[in-house]
Design goal:
mainly alpha
Length: 496
């Protein structure tokens, strides 16, 4: 019966690629067929399906999903207000003093760096960049293929730059997968079981800090590519423009506020939900003060935020239902056995899982991958490799590559749809080639040097060994654990 679960997964992926139906509707429809088949064939009983409401309620009580709704509101505010446009113009004019030929490209990438982690999704970041930096690049005379490549590349910065919503959700999924992997290693007495007993289960904070160095290396490499590309293809330098007061104040305050929030969240001083709430309050206040947040605009913002939040919650519920069905068929056990067959070669198993994620990124968004694929394929890997934060960083880099690889990369397809005129895929691929080369280099370095993900971690990867207690400490602990009336063995009169 375990192979039937894989067949259902293949059917769901085929319907997503060919029909254009919403992902949550496809998953729920396939789940209905699979549940009927499983009950008819006796693969599981109704008691399994009765656990579904409790699983969904348990997930919705997680504070990270409260941050999801707030991130959606932040993205809607950024798309509807003129903050991104003022920030882009201010960055372009300021960078013109340092790199006049590359100022537009660098300004767009820095804009994506600051706003993409707060936008909520790759699609929202891409639409914001196409509306602001994309139009500015068109006015500067950049070819359509190059504009498309820049918009696609910059929109994926929200995947790896902390503390993006994609990274936070992956951190939560990796925490669950790591717990299952450690339990699997202990149950099967794998060589990593002894180490797994001492290893601390990874949390979101570990992954945020592990991704910092690779994210910085990737960003510097992409900025260098944009700068050298602009110098290699010289064009007339536009005269320097004066910066008006709105652009000046935006350029002065917004980077400071965004940088402070991102730094506090990354260091663990502020939780993700608190950082997202603070960003919402600041954006709402800025919209009111600048008189841009009128009642019609507010309704549009709320409509956009509710639509994205509802779609993500529906996707989460559908993916939870599908994963429960796969467990009922025993598909998770089948995948674990297939992965554990490579027990002597855990790195080969990791490469196989990363290749699967890369292939799925052609047809699935980051949220769909995190909710649906990661819980299935990651526990067997984490049962054999104990550094879950390093594996999560590699996963983020692979997701970025999947979104950018021609011809079906998610960000690439969306960026081509926003460009006018629409450039050919071959021309966009040539413009993307140096950025993909930098991404491949960073991924290879992280794969070869796992220590790069440990330099900035503030928490240890392993628990400190417990020191043996002396007799006095044991006696004190027993007294603390004893009930207040433990010394009186006489039965109270009322209980005789």
């Amino acid at each position: 019966m375990a192979w039937l679960g894989l067949a259902l997964l293949a059917l769901a992926l085929a319907l997503m690629m060919t029909t254009g139906w919403p992902t949550y509707a496809v998953l729920l429809g396939v789940c209905t067929l699979g549940a009927a088949a499983g009950l008819a064939l006796g693969a599981f009983d109704v008691a399994l399906l009765q656990n579904l409401p409790w699983r969904i309620v348990g997930l919705l009580e997680h504070d990270l999903l409260q941050a999801l709704a707030l991130y959606a509101l932040v993205g809607a505010l950024l798309n509807r207000l003129a903050l991104a446009e003022h920030l882009y113009n201010g960055l372009r004019k300021a960078l013109a003093f340092v790199a006049p030929r590359a100022a537009p490209e660098l300004a767009g990438m820095v804009l994506g760096l600051m706003l993409a982690p707060m936008n909520g999704s790759v699609g929202a970041s891409l639409l914001m960049l196409a509306r602001t930096a994309g139009k500015g690049w068109a006015r500067e005379g950049l070819p359509a293929a190059r504009r498309t490549a820049l918009v696609a590349v910059t929109s994926t910065l929200g995947v790896i730059v902390p503390p993006s919503l994609v990274l936070l959700l992956l951190g939560d999924a990796m925490l669950r997968a790591h717990t299952e992997g450690v339990n699997m290693a202990r149950a099967l007495a794998l060589p990593t079981a002894a180490a797994g007993a001492a290893n601390r289960i990874v949390n979101t904070q570990d992954i945020l800090q592990a991704a910092l160095v690779p994210a910085a290396a990737l960003l510097l490499g992409w900025l260098a590519v944009a700068w050298f590309g602009a110098r290699r293809k010289p064009r007339p330098v536009a005269p320097r423009e004066p910066m008006d007061w709105r652009e000046g104040w935006t350029l002065l305050l917004v980077p400071l506020l965004i940088g402070a929030l991102l730094l506090l969240v990354t260091l663990g001083k502020v939780r993700a939900v608190e950082g997202a709430a603070a960003a919402c309050v600041l954006l709402l206040g800025w919209g009111v003060v600048s008189r841009q947040l009128t009642r019609p605009v507010l309704w549009q913002v709320l409509d956009d935020a509710m639509a994205l939040t509802g779609a993500l919650y529906a996707l989460l519920a559908a993916a939870t239902t599908f994963s429960l069905l796969l467990r009922g068929f025993g598909t998770d056990g089948l995948i674990a056995r297939l992965m554990l067959a490579l027990q002597g070669h855990p790195m080969v198993g990791l490469l196989v899982v990363l290749a699967v994620l890369l292939a799925c990124a052609f047809v699935l968004d980051a949220f769909e991958l995190i909710f649906l694929i990661v819980p299935i394929v990651m526990p067997p890997v984490l049962a054999q490799l104990d550094d879950a934060a390093w594996i999560a960083t590699l996963t983020l880099l692979v997701l970025q590559a999947g979104f950018l690889l021609p011809p079906f990369g998610y960000a690439l397809v969306l960026a081509r749809g926003q460009a006018a005129p629409r450039p050919p895929v071959a021309a966009v691929a040539r413009a993307l080639a140096p950025y993909l080369a930098v991404l491949a280099t960073v991924t290879a370095l992280v794969m070869a040097l796992p220590a790069t993900t440990r330099w900035l971690r503030t928490s240890p990867t392993a628990l400190a060994p417990a020191e043996p207690m002396n007799d006095e400490a044991v006696d004190r602990l027993m007294r603390e654990m004893a009930p207040p009336d433990a010394g009186d063995s006489t039965t109270p009169p009322e209980e005789r």
